[in-house]
């Protein structure tokens, strides 16, 4: 790891991590040793929470002004990596780093970031995105730019053996969701990426039960880790329009209730699917056949499509995921608030497969009840 940091020019590193799992497992000490062996100095900033907050990002940027590091190393999951990316971007920016997340500034430069991944889920280890929650208003927003893509990411399946089953399941759902956001497209004749998407979904379907039965199953963890990378480094999304409305709908849930992103997606994706199935019944029916093993009803593909969505929901329940608002701890009465925070109106929409305005967003939240 120290050699990799050096390869990408790191001389003084910000070592960024979460709430303690990497301290407990001894990983952080191993990382420090590896840096020291390469004569690389470091400053530490731990304490990233799931659904990472702006407060720690400001602290990291302040630390940069005092300590001047030239590389940010994230040791942890998507939350740590996203926080590291935000610090890397904010360090080189004179204004408020939040400008990148509110859409007020374009992200063109950042310090180099490297990652050691400890949970396969968010795909931030290969993506150009970062998602942060601003404590002022609890707004969860994303920023993106090629400069945020990690210079390297170490994916060692042994590092995820300590994950609680619930976190593994949440991660699996997030990986599936990253593929589904790309799968539901209006772009025609994209067979290669359609089938790549289906392969990743099938892999999660086959491997996650093995991991839940035995977290030390190296091969299953390795497959899931690699699935998480290819699900979100955009190899499955090349040349196709992508949707991302379900992620927008979910981010409001994790911002308001501080639930795991994957758990929120397990509630929102089936609702989004049910709402939009008529837009392209054959695409939904193909997914049902190729991933969930349903038999195609040639006379009435919609029944196959709906059967596929039911199989997805059963699968989600079988791996311990919530599938309704109440299972998630979300409240019906908050729906208007969720829609408002989402920022959709009667003329401002999210998504592209089907454009969702305020009315549609509200109906999908209601379908998730
Ligand atoms: O904080 P520690 O103590 O490390 O504990 C974490 C945390 O509590 C724990 N954990 C991680 N690795 C572990 C471990 N526990 C035991 N053993 C290990 N090996 O797991 C918990 C969850 O970690 P977190 O980083 O929050 O999970 P995840 O990777 O799912 O990240 C979720 C965040 O990523 C964002 C989500 O919105 C959410 O904020 N996303 C980022 C994306 C991106 N940058 O491209 C895309 C995604 O769609 C997503 O929105
Ligand atoms: Zn996600």
Describe the structure.
The chain has 369 residues and is an alpha/beta fold. It folds into 2 domains: 2-154, Rossmann fold; 162-367, Dehydroquinate synthase-like - alpha domain (Dehydroquinate synthase-like, alpha domain). The protein is built from 16 helices and 7 strands. The chain has helices at residues 2-7, 21-24, 27-37, 54-67, 78-91, 98-102, 165-183, 191-213, 218-232, 245-257, 261-276, 281-290, 301-318, 325-328, 335-342, 358-367, and strands at 12-17, 41-45, 71-76, 113-117, 129-134, 139-144, 152-154. Strands 2-1-3-4-7 form a 5-stranded parallel sheet, sandwiched between helices. A hairpin with a 4-residue loop joins strand 5 and strand 6 (139-144). The radius of gyration is 20 Å and the shape is globular. The N and C termini lie far apart (46 Å). 51% of the residues are buried. The model has no long low-confidence stretch (mean pLDDT 98). The structure holds 5,6-dihydroxy-NADP and zinc ion. The site of zinc ion has 6 residues, from helix 7. The site of zinc ion (ZN) has 6 residues, from helix 7.
What does this entry show, briefly?
The protein is an alpha/beta fold and 369 residues long. Helix content is 51%, strand content 10%. Helix 7 packs parallel to helix 9 (218-232), helix 7 (165-183) packs parallel to helix 11 (261-276) and helix 8 (191-213) packs antiparallel against helix 9.
What key attributes describe this structure?
binds zinc ion; Dehydroquinate synthase-like, alpha domain; five-stranded parallel sheet; 369 residues; alpha/beta; globular; binds 5,6-dihydroxy-NADP; 16 helices; 51% helix; Rossmann fold
